[in-house]
Amino acid sequence: MDLTAARVLARAGLLRPTRPDRLLGMGLALARWGLTPATGYAVGAARHPDRVAIIDDQGSLTFREIDERTDRLAGELRARGIHEGSAVGLLARNGRGFVEGSVALCKCGADVLYLNTGFASAQLKGVLDREQAIAVVHDEEFAGLLAEATDCLLVTTEELAELAQTSTAKPPPKTDHPPRTVILTSGTTGAPKGSARSGASIDDVVAALSVIPLRSGETTVIAAPIFHAWGLAHLALGMVLGSTVVLHKKFDPSRVLEAVEQHQATALIVVPVMLDKLLHAEPRDTSSLRVVASSGSALPGELATRTLERLGPVLYNLYGSTEAAYAAIATPDDLAADPHTAGRPPHGVTLRIVNEQGQPVPQGTPGFVYVGGPMSFEGYTDGSDKARLDGLVATGDVGVLDSKGRLKILGRDDDMVVIGGENVYPGQVEDALLSHDGVLEVAVTSADDPSYGVRLIAHVVGEATEEELQALVRDRVARFAVPREFRFVAELPRNATGKVLKRELA
Asked: pTM of the predicted model, to two decimals?
């Protein structure tokens, strides 16, 4: 551990004296479970057993309760044929069912496949077949969907909740198989792929905490879905920090704000579309918040500005991907200086902007974004991989660095279109359109055009005239970037993490 990492951990309250007996218990937990979700609660049970770990729709559970309950559940799952190396899906909303299912499966030595709660049966079938899953732990509401998608073993989280109290099963022996976690890509541009990781490390924690000032023993409300990388990362950080994590099965802006006020939460974890809805909800006392962390999809500049105006200097925006994990984090000061920035790479992360030949480009010149850090994925579970360069992983985006070393994302590398010999990035056009007071949401797609080769189509939620929007793009971007067609719609199609499904618009 380098000096910077030690300072980061000390600032977060993780490096402090611990009773010898508790220190021993923490060491034994780490030796037994390795670097897995099981370790977080087992270590917490040794260090602060009676501290509340999660608060959900059913009440609260301490670190010790989760550790003991998942010992029994792991024994039950082993008895049903789930063993070391078994691939098991987990399809559950935010709550104890997800948390305890994930921990119990790790204690079995199983590889946990986190499934998107927004999937249709065909998508579920495709993923479960490809990953050769032998079982799925799921909320009861998904029983019918899964019955159409698979004939593998199905176990409900409701059944597990009952067994957690009544079972007499003993915990399974120590596993020699390091369980993998498989997180699915968003699937906005095609079929979702499995992104595999063997475990976490202290470097993962340091990278996040080097920029986002989370503290040990505080309360975090995670509104973002925890089946996806962003929410799951903060669930893991909550385990490590010994924080109390508040979870609700379904997102309700008023309820989230009420939870912040009621529990005096210091951190709120969201995706941008949630943040927008929170700002439109009836205000509550959110003065306890020190961190509002957003990721999962692009944060519009005007939304960043509105958030800072309403909530104060608490907004942190993370740019990354399922494959590369953390790439850059923008602080409140960064966002105040440039609402469109993605920030700078956190501690331990390398970010490079290169041309088509893989050579670094000068500052201010657009290029392809490559990232390397402790959390980069091992490759897709189907054997394919992202493009790599000197150990760095391609994010699939085009970006540019400003004079302060801050990254700005221009758009997907496969979204760029050439109009009249000029490169046009739909993301820049979207930012311009969102600056109009009457535009609530917008997505820009492209289509073939017999005269120009390519034309841009703007899908707009809100009230404005085409003439106003054309003038806005002409003034803020360029004349050649003005969409040739505007479609006014009631809403944009989104997935469970808030990303716009542009293929459906096309």
From this structure: 0.85
- Name the nearest CA neighbour of 255 among 277, 238, 240: 277
Question: What pLDDT was estimated at residue 486?
Answer: 94
Number of domains in the chain: 3
Encode pLDDT of 195-212 as tens digits: 665 555 677 889 999 999
Task: Give the number of other CB atoms < 10 A from CB of residue 457.
Answer: 17
pLDDT tens digits for 413-458?
A: 777 787 766 778 888 899 899 989 999 999 999 888 766 678 899 9
User: Residue with structure tokens 């540019």?
Assistant: 400
Token digits of residue 414 = 């496969």
Provide CB contacts within 8 A for 192, sequence distance 6+.
116, 119, 123, 127, 184, 185, 186
- Rounded to 10 deg, the angle between the 466-476 and 426-434 helix axes is 120
253 and 336 both lie in a single domain:
yes
b/e map 122-143, b = 16+ CB within 10 Å:
ebbbebbebbebbbbbbbeebe
pLDDT tens digits, residue range 292-317?
A: 999 988 888 889 999 999 999 999 99
In contact, 294 and 342? CB cutoff 8 Å: no
Q: What is the reported pLDDT for 389?
A: 84
Q: Is 465 in the same domain as 382? A: no
Q: Which DSSP category does 360 fall into?
A: B
Q: Which of 394, 412, 430 is the endpoint of a domain?
A: 412
Q: The domain containing residue 478 runs over which residues?
A: 417-505
Q: For 292, list phi and psi in degrees, rounded to 5.
A: -120, 110
Q: Buried b / exposed e across 464-487, counting CB within 10 Å, b at 16+?
A: beeeebbebbeeebbebbbbeebe
Q: What is the pLDDT of residue 114?
A: 93
Q: How far apart are CA 469 and CA 466, in angstroms?
A: 5
Q: Are strands 325-330 and 291-294 parallel, antiparallel or unpaired?
A: unpaired
Structure tokens at 372: 């390397």
Q: Is 325 helix (H, G, I), strand (E, B) or coil?
A: strand
Where residue 154 sits, what CATH number does that domain have?
Answer: 3.40.50.980
Q: Please indicate, yes or no, whether residues 449 and 369 belong to a single structural domain of this protein.
A: no
> In whole angstroms, what is the distance from residue 401 CA to residue 353 CA?
8
Question: Residue 353 in contact with residue 402, Cβ under 8 Å?
Answer: no
Q: Give CA–CA dist 363/384, Å, rounded.
A: 32
